[in-house]
Amino acid sequence: MKISSLSLLGVVILGALYGVPIRAAADTGSAGAVPGTFTVTTTADGAAANPFDGICRTDAGECTLRAAIQAANVRPGSTIRVPEGRYELTIPPNFWNTNGPFIDPATGDLDVTADTTIEGAGQDRTVIDAGHRDRVMLTTAHVSLSGLTITGGNATEHEIPLFETGGGGIANSGKLILDHVTVVGNAADYGGGIFNIPVADMKMTDSIVTANAAGEAGGIRCDNTCTFTRTVITDNRVVNPRVKWYRFGGFAGRGGGLDIRGVGAVVLIDSVVTGNSADEGGGGINIAPAYLDSLPYQFTDVFNPGMGQLILHGSTIAQNTAGLGEQNCKKVFATIVSTGGNLSNDHSCDLTAAGDAVRPDAGSR
């Protein structure tokens, strides 16, 4: 699927950290399509000697994180255990993939193309760092990440299904689960931390998304369903929104923390969205399916069919900033539903349910 800013419009309308690696006796796997369990044995980067035999082994005889993912890609349902350490991705992206269209797990970002569970030793103990060479990870299947940090991503590869440089930390076109994961210090054109395309779903629990940047959707972009539970989205920002010719009007400058562009429900439960910034409205959250916020405000202010939906429960959306318009929440052709217990410092998030509160000092640090 070819996804870009403009094609996305059509699609939707139409339908820190250093550690010492722990060396362990590795289960490097065995040939065959049955699921395996792989324990990474080195923080070094390196591709599998044979990416098709389902064995986690480089030419040097090590089980690297990249080689483990390559092995898991031919053995769906596998588990990868990543000990404490900083895993820097040192292999630059394939030159041809900077303009698509092929996924190359041996270079650049880590491409997870089969159902896989990746377990780190803890958010502040296992760090995967792309070194600003490429995005950190591309996920196209049912993928679960836990106990680790994703950092240093700078989306450059235009791989299928992402022909634009979305998702500096993670570009997701599958079903992604993140538990106790920190996404920090990544950059992209869209979704500085995470980009979920229209067919993708994501669940994020007890996690942090912070200090990411993009021309649109500084922290996270959701083009389908996303659920955030006890998750903090903070200090993300939209920068240089109109550097690219195709980002104009509603195509840029919005959604400092979270940018919602699909019609699937996005749910925040006991979560925090604070300190994010955008050039235009929605410093905290922008919700506008199919880029309908690029239409003239004379039209969008009158007609609001409520195509998109944001559901809030027990969450704080406060102290976000925007150069124009609504600071915390901006919506076009969408509804914000509060089920109570939410907090904000302005009225832009439609907090009117029992237990909601709007206070000027809400979310202050």
UniProtKB/TrEMBL annotation:
<dbReference type="InterPro" id="IPR026457">
    <property type="entry name" value="CSLREA_Nterm"/>
</dbReference>
<dbReference type="InterPro" id="IPR012334">
    <property type="entry name" value="Pectin_lyas_fold"/>
</dbReference>
<dbReference type="InterPro" id="IPR011050">
    <property type="entry name" value="Pectin_lyase_fold/virulence"/>
</dbReference>
<protein>
    <submittedName>
        <fullName>CSLREA domain-containing protein</fullName>
    </submittedName>
</protein>
